[in-house]
Specification:
The chain is mostly helical and about 190 residues long. It contains 8 helices and no strands. The chain folds into 2 domains: about 100 residues, Rna Polymerase Sigma Factor, Chain: A; about 55 residues, Arc Repressor Mutant, subunit A (Orthogonal Bundle).
């Protein structure tokens, strides 16, 4: 039988502050099961409750010299357990919000970004192929597609016959279809 069982909470606290490990052992033996039941009622997860209590008694030992127990040892222990449980609940809420935010980003953000990136790369490929067209054909094609001019407007602007413009546009489309493939070509033109 340990002599520490006879000591009051105030005596144990005083001994703990001097670095007496046996005082901590007695505090642990005296309050662990009561604190466990108290915590488990509010947070019914056995492992987490054990972790909370382990952290509490470790904190008590690590801060034994500076800890102030104004309202007594039991009040301090109960309040510490309650605060740790509240912190766990708050952290779980934050993690839940973060998870939802990440999930929304994954579902919306990355697909939008991926689509924009693919579109940009495809646009660069198309621009490269248009730039590779013969000069006259490229000018006619760009006036037709980018400035949306009709064949007669292009013919008037470049002093060409509308039939020549039509042939050049048709040839440009044939070349681009061959280089870009029918699917890409269909999407963009």
């Amino acid at each position: 039988m340990s002599v520490y069982k006879e000591f009051s909470d105030q005596d144990l606290t005083r001994l703990l502050k001097t670095g007496d490990g046996a005082a901590l052992t007695e505090i642990h033996a005296r309050y662990y099961s009561i604190l466990y039941m108290h915590a488990y009622k509010r947070f019914p997860y056995r492992e987490e409750v054990r972790d909370i209590l382990q952290e509490l008694f470790t904190y008590l030992w690590d801060h034994k010299y500076e800890i102030e127990l104004h309202l007594g040892l039991p009040a301090y222990l109960y309040a510490s357990v309650r605060n740790r449980i509240l912190n766990l609940h708050r952290n779980q809420k934050v993690r839940g919000k973060y998870s939802k935010s990440m999930q929304a980003f994954i579902e919306q953000g990355t697909s939008i970004t991926d689509e924009q990136l693919r579109e940009k790369e495809l646009r660069a490929l198309i621009d490269k192929e248009i730039a590779a067209l013969p000069p006259q054909m490229r000018i006619i094609f760009e006036l037709s597609r980018n400035q949306e001019l009709s064949h007669s407007e292009i013919a008037d602007k470049l002093d060409l016959s509308p039939l020549t413009v039509r042939t050049q546009v048709r040839n440009a489309l044939r070349i681009l279809r061959g280089k870009l493939g029918p699917y890409v070509f269909f999407i963009w033109f």
